[in-house]
Amino acid sequence: MHPRTILNALHLRPAADRRPPTAGRRPAVYLGVAVAGAAVVNLVVGSGPAAHAEAVQSESVSVAEQLGVDGTAGPADVVRGLGPLAGLAASRSSREDAEFAAQLTQAAADQAVLDQQRAEAEAAARRAAEEAAAKRAAELAELAQLAELAAAQAKAAALAPAAKTPAAAVAGAAGSVAATTRAKISNSAGAINPRAQAAADAVVSNVPGAASITLGGTRASAADPGGHPSGLAVDYMVLSNSALGDAIVAYHVANWNALGVDYIIWKQRMLSSPGGAWKQMENRGSPTANHMDHPHVNYR
């Protein structure tokens, strides 16, 4: 109880209870009241801060216990107690650094794969371009050689024009493959295959007018590696003598197996069997490339 309340309780009595003070008792009453008030004030004022300090100290000790730190330790002890926390922070930083380094390594590996794929694609594109250029060059060389053969045949025809081959003569020679004349074949890439040479010998020996034309044998070719480059194909350069070309083709069809024919190309068409149908071919851009001026015969 507050001292003032006690004083008020002592002084605020009802008027009926009050007695007139006597001269002999007043000093003693005052002295007793003063002593009681001083005791109460000392009790309240003296115990308040101590109790508050005790509560604060208890709360601090509770928080310190939760953090795992001795509440009675000094500053140096507190710093030492925070060592595990610092270790955890350092460990986390190390993990983050390791993860970042791993990400950099993976990114570098991915980029290396992409670079390799790009290099391979570029190399493949270069190879394809080189192969296309080589193929085109071979085709041009083939066309040039065919043109040269055609020019030579035209010159020979101007000096000694070949007679037209009658159909009856072709029919009469169809059954014979005996060779009496050796065909002269122009080869620029090695010797002609013996099978092709024998077939050409039979043609010039049995088809009237065939001995006076130019025959083309081995040469580089991008269209059919198994034909002219291997020595198994012969071009019979009839030029404008279409009837002679028809006669040479008819002779091969009539003696297909005996001559070892594989296929015939004539006038932009292909025949793959003696009893089969002619198949139209794509336009190759020139009369010679389309075989309009010469039958091409491939032998097995």
TrEMBL record:
InterPro entries (alphabetical): ARB_07466-like_C
Annotated ARB-07466-like C-terminal domain residues: 189-292
Chain segments carrying region Disordered: 279-300
Keywords of the record: Coiled coil
Residues in coiled coil: 111-149
Bias-annotated ranges (Basic and acidic residues): 291-300
Protein's UniProt name: ARB-07466-like C-terminal domain-containing protein
Top-rank lineage group of the source organism: Bacteria
